[in-house]
Amino acid sequence: MNDPNGFCIFNNEVHLFYQYNPYTSYETGIAHWGHAISKDYFHWQHQPIAMYPDQWYDATGVFSGSALIENNTMYLFFTGNVNYPGETPDHINRQALAWSTDGVNVTKYENNPIINGSLTMPNLRDPKVWEYEGTYYMVLGNSLNETYGRALLYSSNDKISWDYVSVIAQSNGSLGYMFECPDFFELDGKYVLLFSPQGIEASGDKYHNLYQTGYIIGDFDYSTHTFTPTSEFVELDHGHDVYATLTTLDNLGRRIVIAWFDMWEQNYPEAADGFTGIMTIPRELRIINGKLLQKPVREISRIKGKQVSAKKGNYTLRYKAGEVNVLADGSKDLQLYIASSNVTVTISYDAANGKVTLDRGGSDGVRRTDWKPAGQLKWRIFVDASSIELFCGDGEVTFSSRFFPTGAVTIYQRGAAVLKVREIVRTMPKPK
Fold first, then answer.
1. Which of 32, 34, 2, 28 is nearest to 16 (CA)?
2. Which of 3, 58, 126, 183 is catalytic?
3. pLDDT tens, 233-242?
4. pTM, entire model
5. How many angstroms separate the Cα of 219 from the Cα of each of 174, 230, 341, 390?
6. 334-339, strands of its sheet edge to edge
7. In the chain, which end has fewer C-beta atoms inside a 10 angstrom radius, N or C?
C-alpha cells in the first residue's frame, strides 16, 4: 500500500481508501483502491477492493484522489493512469469520477474522464475536491515541462465539467519538478497548501528524504483565484517516512491529516512478512503563531494499555508497542534510547543549539531540525512494531520514522527526565 485516498467521514464512520497492490508485497504494482472503515480512527475493518484498474483511462492504475460527501452520496475523484511503453510521453494521467451511496460499493462514471489528459501535460494527478458557495474546486499536482512543480486549480458547477482557473503555486526550481498529492484548505483564518514535491535538493538539515512533504500558509481570494503565501515552504515532518498526506474535515470540525508512513525506494524487511507500507497516526492540525501544529487525535486514548512509571528511567515494551511521555528541563541536554537486540533509535535534544535529532543508525539514519521548548521539554512518542512517531511540545515539530526491532523494545535515557510509559498489550487469537 501507499498513498491514502478518499479520506472522509460518511454516515458517521471514517473511510480511508489507499493505493493498493493485492498481488504482492514486494512492489507497488498496478494501483487499486483498497478500503477500510473505522469509528474511531484506530480500529479498522477491511472492506472489498473499492476500484480496480479496469477501464481504458485507468488501465495501468487507479491513482490517488479524494472524496466529497454530498446528498448522502460519496463522490470519489481519482486519477486514471495509462502507460505507453517506448513512447513520449510514456504515460498520461486523466481525472475521473466515481460514487457510492452505501460507502462500500463504488460505481465509476460512464462518461469518464472528466478531465482528459494530454501529450503536452501528461503529469496532472491526485485531485483534491471541495465545495465553496455553490462552486466545486479541484486542486491537482502537475509538472511543467518536467522541470517545475505546480499546483493547478480547476472549478466546476456540476462536478463533471471542469475548467482550469489558476496556478495556486509553482516551483522556481528550488521546490522540485513535480508536486504530488496537493491538498488545499482553510484553517484558523488562513489557507494551507499541503503537498509532496519531488526533486528538492538536500540543504543543511532539510530535505534528506528521497521526496518531501510540506506546506505553505497564505491567503486565498476566491474572486481572483489567487493564493498569496505568508510563509515559506516548511517540511511537515522531519523523520524518514512521511509522504502523500491527505486531510479531511470531521464531524467535530477538526482538520485531520493522515499520511503514507513509508518512503519510495526503501528496502524494508516488512515485505517478507507479507505487507509493505502503513499509515501514520491520524493527527489534528492547527495553525498557531503562523505554524502548522500536529497532535494525535484524542481517540488514541481509547487504545487499551497499562500505564506504568519507568523504574530508574527504563522500561521494556514486551510487545514492541507503547506510548512514552517525557518531561525534562528544557535548558539541559537529553538522550532517549529505544533499543532492541538488532537496532537502537536515539532521540536527543541539544539545548545549547536548540536541535532535536532522531538517529535510527545506518548511513542515512540521522534526521535533525531546530526546536526549542517553551520552558519544560515535552516529548510524546508512540512506538509500534515497525515505527516511531515523536511529537515535540504541543506538536510544533514531529518525527515519523520506520524501524524494525527484533524482540522486545527497551526505553531508557541519559539525562534527567521523567518517563511515563503506557504499554500496549497485543491480544492474539487463540489457536483453534
1. 34
2. 3
3. 999 999 999 9
4. 0.96
5. 22, 7, 50, 30
6. 314-317, 409-414, 334-339, 344-350, 355-359, 366-370
7. C
